[in-house]
Amino acid sequence: MKINVMQEVLQANDRIAGENRKIFQKNKNLVLNLMSSPGAGKTSLLEKTAEMLQGRLRLGVIVGDLETTRDADRISKYNIPAIQLTTGNACHLDANMVSYALPHLKLEEIDILVIENVGNLVCPAEFIVGEDYKIMILSVTEGDEKPLKYPMMFHESKLLLINKIDLAQYTNFNMEEAKANAHKINPDMDIIEISCTQGTGLDRWIKWLVEHYKQKLKGSAHA
Amino acid sequence: MHEMGIAQNILDIAVAAARKEGASKITRINLVAGELRGIEPMQLTFCFAVVARDTIAGNAYLDIETVPVSGYCNECQTNFSIDDYAYVCPQCGSVKIEVTGGTELRLKDIEIE
Predict the structure, then answer these.
(1) For A92-108, how does the pLDDT look when each residue is reduced to its tens digit (9 = 90+)?
(2) The domain spanning residue A189 has which CATH number?
(3) Could you tell me where the beta strands, DSSP code E, fall in chain A?
(4) Which residue does chain B place closest to A180, by CA atoms?
């Protein structure tokens, strides 16, 4: 006998993401789900961001890491609230894991909450966690063809930060090609070139953050 | 390996639907998976076999229907298929398009005994 089911497979995740989103709305948090390959510079970006936002906007961070607390330790040095989710074998954060972190953060004292996902270009794009936007980092050492190889993540992201541009001269990374590939997958994607170690382009990233935070306060942001 | 979590969700939904009908066995599960979901059918089939072991879906066949990416142009109102991830209308060249297919991940129906 055939039974009609017609249910979204990830509906359990999406329901919890909706609950997370309500909590974020109440606390007026701009929530960003930050994704990239391992080693692209997620934690370095957050260190620089913590430094540059000081005295302007209050940053909070949830870090997903497989085994260690090293990333959370690095970020905590900047006196910003950082919660580590040790994911064990999981290759991504899901809405349920994020919901466990929320009671440990004073969300009412946070303006921008960045959820640093597990380093992986595939799985994190599948699971919404209650964010306003997914954003991602691609570092030049990874290659300019990555948007075509991992279309889902590039398609889902509002912003692409191209990091380590100071190293581009030592690689065969073609910046125009990378941008064209990203815009082919996602024509509306914002792209900012940065170098976390040199500080290049970070002012534009901070401007993006502030603008989207203001938009969120106006209630016009959506996921 | 997002396939493991997805397999568990498929199992939970299928078992709940089968129980509601008082079924003792699930023989087949029909899944629709959009191309953009990046599902590897072989991996998902393997993961499903692992999580379904010793359940009423232990011998169920998991059918995965892959849906290609498709779009709708907001400028010239054309429906088209998106090949090679080119998010551009093939008629008028506009990028003001909506993705209408290829992102779904849905359990369509099950067969029970």
Answers:
(1) 899 999 999 999 999 99
(2) 3.40.50.300
(3) 2-8, 30-36, 59-65, 82-86, 112-116, 133-139, 157-163, 190-193
(4) B86
